[in-house]
Amino acid sequence: MKHLISAGDLSRDDALLILDTAEELARVSERSIKKLPTLRGRTVVNLFFEDSTRTRISFEAAAKRLSADVINFSAKGSSVSKGESLKDTALTLEAMGADAVVIRHSASGAPHRLATWVRGSVVNAGDGTHEHPTQALLDAFSMRRRMGRLEGLKVAVVGDILHSRVARSNVLLLASLGAEVTLVAPPTLLPVAVENWPCLVSYDLDAVLPKSDVVMMLRVQLERQNAAFFPSAREYSRRYGLDRDRFAKLHDDAIVMHPGPMNRGMEISAEVADSPRSTIVEQVANGVTVRMAVLYLLLGGAIGGEVQ
Ligand code: CP
């Protein structure tokens, strides 16, 4: 496999190879000198047309830990503001010798288009409401580390599913890894044809929580909402927020996840977000090792092909 555009493109073996490689690379991240020479002489371009903290910084850290040269491009302050197209921007960066382009864009499908224009590998770092495959991989990695398995794990993904690329990528990946996902949201925040996704769907968070091993809370993406999807933030929080009382409904070993950034006090209370059973900070650290594994395997041609 040359590109990573969708979690659905990964076979179970591909996904496990990435998680197992990340596990090996995590040991490097624990050393005082964290750098490996693996991608010396290769160039990774981070092409970000949408804001990001975690994904952009962790891809940069991942590429640098593998000794790649990194070019960071942000649409703000570039010739995109003068009207330059995605294609011309991509070709300009390719002329600088990109072996891999990591792209975040507000348009669903932008990474797929990019892959038809550039010679290097394309990694989807989040496209519109479509997919965020490396987030799903780091989430699966974090779950496996905490819970010791993915097969048979009951995962509730809660909140603004309609606007969430994280939810779609997690459902696709976790289904192929044998976990059982339940999406929980008000009917207005579920996508059309969600019944065709490989997961269960519920409107009732209180009924799902006691049966869950993992609860992944999603940010309410107010910036993508062009209509009133719920009466008020207070009402949303009352029905779908994870506060202390709801947290108490979970079994003692269950964990709480959130991809970040969080709306503290809306979908998750500060007390729950900062509890020892929250993996939110771990997810960020794991993002670096998982993205190292993705770059290493893609540029080595080992996903969906022979391990070199
Ligand atoms: N989880 C995530 O994608 O965060 P950023 O938007 O900060 O990259």
TrEMBL record:
Gene3D superfamilies: Aspartate/ornithine carbamoyltransferase (3.40.50.1370)
Pathway(s) the chain acts in: Pyrimidine metabolism; UMP biosynthesis via de novo pathway; (S)-dihydroorotate from bicarbonate: step 2/3
Catalytic activity of the protein: carbamoyl phosphate + L-aspartate = N-carbamoyl-L-aspartate + phosphate + H(+)
Keyword terms: Pyrimidine biosynthesis, Transferase
Domain named Aspartate/ornithine carbamoyltransferase carbamoyl-P binding: residues: 2-144
Domain Aspartate/ornithine carbamoyltransferase Asp/Orn-binding positions: 151-298
Documented EC number(s): 2.1.3.2
Keyword Transmembrane helix: no
Domain of life: Bacteria
Binding of carbamoyl phosphate, residues: R54, T55, R104, H132, Q135, G260, P261
GO cellular component: cytosol
Enzyme class: transferase
GO terms for MF: amino acid binding; aspartate carbamoyltransferase activity
Residues annotated as binding L-aspartate: K82, R165, R219
GO biological-process terms attached to the record: 'de novo' pyrimidine nucleobase biosynthetic process; 'de novo' UMP biosynthetic process; amino acid metabolic process
PANTHER family: ASPARTATE CARBAMOYLTRANSFERASE, ORNITHINE CARBAMOYLTRANSFERASE, MITOCHONDRIAL
Family statement drawn from the similarity comment of this UniProt entry: Belongs to the aspartate/ornithine carbamoyltransferase superfamily. ATCase family.
Subunit organization: Heterododecamer (2C3:3R2) of six catalytic PyrB chains organized as two trimers (C3), and six regulatory PyrI chains organized as three dimers (R2).
Known function: Catalyzes the condensation of carbamoyl phosphate and aspartate to form carbamoyl aspartate and inorganic phosphate, the committed step in the de novo pyrimidine nucleotide biosynthesis pathway.
HAMAP family: Asp_carb_tr
Protein name from the UniProt record: Aspartate carbamoyltransferase
Organism: Acrocarpospora pleiomorpha
